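=== RUN LOG ===
request id: a7f3
mode: sequence -> structure
chains: 1
length: 302
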Amino acid sequence: MEPLTGMGVLALMGAAATIAGASEDLESDVGSQSNPNSQVQLAPQMMYPHRIYNKAISGEPPSNALICAIGGTVATVLMVTGAAAILALIVGSFVAMLVHGTYSVTPYIGRSASQKRFKQPIYLDIIRSHTPVIMGFAFITTFCILVISYLMISALGHPFPLPLLAFIWGIAIGAIGSSTGDVHYGAEREFQNFEFGSGLNAANSGNIVRKAESGIRNGIDNSWFCAKFGGPATGLAFGMVVFLSGWITVVFDPSISDTLGWEAIIAGVVIVLILIAFNRKIEVDARKRYGPYKVDDEEVGA
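=== RESULT ===
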């Protein structure tokens, strides 16, 4: 493949990855599936009943790997039988969405029922209002991942089958959603009643913010908040991973140039070092602008 064509394919993959990253993060915010979910689950036991959807089928990486692999498998079967690629990807994403919706309702009901002794109600209106949103985000995430995987196979000649590629990208997007999106959902939204950067004292476990701008907070309120920054930041992070990892491979592909492949490794290391330096600059600026961080009333300098 010509480098220019490869760059065009990578641009399309990067765009799909950006959308997938944002939708994955917002889906976990609506359903409270991520590291902060432990605090949502703990809240009733600490006598803080709430109206936040509490599913956490599993961690985000295996959960997204499951639905993406299901979507990829269904799409592959349909394409083998002669279905058009776009139709197969849509149907595969739809089937994965149904599975994810089922796996979302059952843990919410089960967890809430198990916390009856702590006076945690099961809100049927939360199931009706949140589950379709969760399923919608799951469909978008799965479809974008399948598009990325299909382009890698059909345009870039990747040797892995579609279900396996979807499985790998599902793990990757779930991991990025946990590492990038959690910060803006857990630290900044669930515990916004505590001082910025103070950390979570054990005595405050489960003491999540339960009041929204209007009424009692729920998962959609969290998603509304995270759509401003947490979701886009997660999408940008995943989009950069997909685009930059593919970019160094296309530009320094030894099969179409005189390079030996080491250039791609060196370029990858340089990109990582630049991102580390940029991340450090952002962290220091945040401390100066919104800090200081405090640990036991002692300031922690930048």
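=== NOTES ===
Residues 3-251 form one domain.
The chain has nine helices and two strands.
=== END ===
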